Predict the 3D structure of the following.
Amino acid sequence: MTILVTGASGFVGSYVVPELISGGHRVVALVRDEAAEARVTRRLPEAQRAAVSFRRGEVTDPASLPAALEGVDAVVHLVAIARDWDGGRSLARLNTGGTRNMVDAAKAAGVRRFVHMGALAVEDREELHYASSKKRAERYVEESGLDWTVVKPSLIWGPRDGFFNILAGLVRMSPLIVPVPGDGKARFQPIAATDVARAFRLCLERPESIGQEYLIGGPTYWTYTEVVQEVCRGLG
């Protein structure tokens, strides 16, 4: 199967791309520029690099997407941002608008298989800019008429992640007093990035996943305080 991966140069993409290749698939990585292409290539073992080709484009630029979809059997859509500084406009433009553009382009190109990365426990509320941008994107995918699957992971951890590494940075800056918001009892179910990548591959390979949402998390619930304590242990 030839699979177009958006967000191939990002954190989750850096795990999904090699997982798909290890499953015998060919990957077409949608990248914005040479720097993104270099990141994807650099992270792959030498033996896997021949299984990836690159096409330039951006999900916010609909005109760049038809060429990217030529000869593709399926789309894995990973592109998203977690925050912005303009009152939710960038979140809406990329997370929701970018997903709409990608879905519309896939339909126009006749690419029916579409696996989308959603997010756990999001809801469409105006004051929750990230959550609403992701929920609206999920809804658009599920109402598209494509052969869709939505994978909704919990907090993802692994090298280069955007949560545990931030905590580690806070601990390094203030090793004796680490801030804990609230009462520290908020619960998380962290999942390894390698497991998330495996979930995407299995969805693509199993027809019974079409039309399904999968909420995925790791085997253990952690409170925020426990997460901070584990990061501290990891840093010695």
Summary: The helical segments are 13-22, 34-43, 65-68, 89-109, 129-142, 164-173, 193-205, 224-234. The chain has a mean pLDDT of 95. Residues 89-109 form the longest helix (21 residues).
